[in-house]
Write a structure and sequence with these properties.
Largest sheet: 8 strands, mixed
CATH superfamily of the largest domain: D-Amino Acid Oxidase, subunit A, domain 2
CATH architecture of the largest domain: 2-Layer Sandwich
Strand content: 25-35%
Number of domains: 2
Number of strands: 19
Radius of gyration: 21 Å
Distance between the termini: 37 Å
């Protein structure tokens, strides 16, 4: 007899949410993945962009699908916090500011369907409503007051893992090196043991094609991102009370679009404002390239630009320090996640989050759990939209 019904490989936001949803549906689940390394600069193994304390969540988005899945996920935040006693969600709102008429009209159109109560704010009122920000005279804004803000991804994963254990599942802090299938049993080898299951789900993020556990290489891109963290002193915190998360798109160059998060408490006991860029050029997704990138402090040219942008955005703030970090997003050619079964295998993929992981992991996990457990996609989703595309 197999040791469990399903093994989920990958203990990030998507894998943890998928495992918890499966266990909640009645499956006997083992979730396997390593914890956070002590020092990313010297770590040579797997790493994750979820090793952070701030990620934007919101419904407003120019793409209807993204708004749909994030809205469904956000609805589950408070119940998950209540179940586990782990708080991870700060509902501080989300502000869109732009002079790009196409971005604004897309946000406005999608908002009418998924968040019709969004508030439109003309530029001449922005300074009064958000006095700490400095914006040009030609921008317009849309404000999502509720069901938006930011999450602590480390704490959300902790909540998902605790809920999994409440539902009878198992969390294993280890790395998977090998997967074999014989008849209807799939065996997974970690550092410590072989574990047998009926099904295996790969939620291995940017490392999906690295190593040899994936049955067949998939077609996805990895985009490197650089973030800058500006340290806020305790004396300045009161001046920034009520600051929302922000998407700021000025002009038509997508490589210059930024996102911003208000002061967040990090594990070192300090508060940081976070700024990052929304888009980037893909990089190779082999192990060596990923390791080198995660060991770095990001792209120094982008660090300079982001630091200058942050200071222009908050001209009255004097940052105690500035430092940078690296992270990545994974992109599928379809614009949706790969939630699919590998050919002739009891092995499944939940891969390529398309930058939607933080705000949408719970709903992606729900879709995956329904497919893996029941062979169907829940309404209003269609299996055809989530099929794997393989590398040539």
């Amino acid at each position: 007899m197999p040791d469990c019904d399903v093994i989920v490989v990958g203990r990030g936001l998507i894998g943890s949410a998928t495992a918890r949803q499966l266990a909640n549906a009645g499956a006997n689940v083992a979730l396997i993945g390593p914890g956070e390394p002590e020092n990313n600069h010297t770590h040579n193994g797997l790493f994750g962009s979820h090793y952070d304390s701030g990620r934007i969540v919101r419904i407003l988005d120019p793409i209807p699908y993204s708004a749909q899945i994030s809205k469904a996920s956000i609805e589950h935040y408070r119940p998950l916090e209540k179940l586990t006693g782990i708080g991870f969600y700060q509902e501080v709102g989300f502000l869109v500011v732009t002079n790009n008429k196409y971005y604004y009209s897309d946000i406005e159109a999608v908002g009418k369907t998924f968040y019709p109560q969004a508030e439109r704010i003309p530029q001449n009122e922005l300074a009064e409503r958000f006095p700490y920000f400095n914006f040009p005279a030609d921008v317009k804004a849309i404000f999502q007051q509720t069901k938006a803000g930011h999450i602590n991804p480390r704490k959300q994963i902790a909540a998902q893992n605790k809920a999994l254990e409440i539902y009878g599942g198992t969390v294993i802090d280890d790395v998977v090196f090998e997967i074999k299938q014989k008849d209807l049993v799939v065996s997974v080898r970690t550092n410590q043991e072989w574990i047998d299951s009926k099904k295996v789900i790969l939620a291995t993020g940017a490392y999906a094609n690295s190593g040899s556990i994936i049955p067949r290489k998939i077609d996805f891109g990895v985009v490197p991102h650089t973030i800058v963290l500006g340290e806020i002193t305790m004396e300045q915190l009161p001046n920034l009370n009520g600051t929302p998360s922000l998407s700021y798109r000025y002009g038509s160059d997508p490589m210059r679009y930024i996102y911003f998060m208000p002061p967040i408490l990090y594990p070192d006991g300090k508060f940081y404002i976070k700024i990052g860029h929304s888009n980037g050029d893909p990089m190779p997704n082999d192990m060596n390239t990923l390791t080198s990138w995660f060991q770095s402090d990001g792209d120094m040219e982008k660090v300079e630009w982001l630091s200058e942008t942050l200071q222009n955005l908050l001209p009255d703030v004097k940052f105690a320090s500035l430092h940078s970090k690296s992270c990545v997003t994974t992109k599928s050619p379809t614009g949706k996640q790969f939630i699919d079964q590998f050919d002739e295998k009891q092995i499944y993929a939940v891969l390529a989050d398309n930058g939607q992981c933080a705000k949408s992991a719970d709903e992606v996990g729900y879709i995956a759990s329904e497919f893996v457990m029941n062979g169907r996609f829940p309404d209003p989703y269609r299996r055809a939209d989530f099929r794997i595309k393989y590398s040539a």
